[in-house]
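Appendix B. Chain record.
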Amino acid sequence: MNKFALLLFVLVAGAGSVISQSTATSVTYNKIVQPALMLELPYDVSVSEGFIIDNLKKTGYNAETKGKLFWKQNKLDGYYVFKDVRLQGASQSSDLYFKVERKSKRSKDQSVIYLLAGTGGEQFISESSDPTTYRAAMDFLNGFVDQSAQYKLNIDIKGQENAVKDAEKRLDKLIENEKDLNKKIDQLQKDLKKNRNDQDDQQKKVENEKRKLEKLKDHSSN
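Structure tokens predicted for this chain:
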């Protein structure tokens, strides 16, 4: 890699890390404007949702204890709710409210994650009201940036592994079909050979019957 390419790579990577950090914002929850955090990811909504669950598990929280998709049913005012999550660096457990949306109608492969952090009873914190928990929530969300690429890569690898398995299954099926076709060809060749032999035999019978007919006609003329 030449110096110019290396410099360009460093600049792009540095810019990406700045853009990809979570930022403070405000959202409306239950008709009330609340302090929140926002993070943009270059992946579609389903990938970002799965990544949230994956990262919650790393904190020791199991979002799927009541079924694989239980967390999707536990939704309030458009937010996925996870109670009593212990975030690293926080002095107490937090209730985390996540909403994942497409960044825009044109950007189906880009999504935005909104995070509300609360201390119970839908009391949401801000940087000024609880700086420790707020920083822990921000660090948790910022952790998505470094880990999401590997998570997406793992999804792509698994998807490609499944594609390979499907392709191999189709190949195996074609090979089996070829065996069946070869059996049919062998049988058809045997049937063809038998048919030719039967034709020869029948041709001899036809000729024999014709000779008999000629003899009868000769006797009739005499």
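Further analysis of this model is presented in Appendix C.
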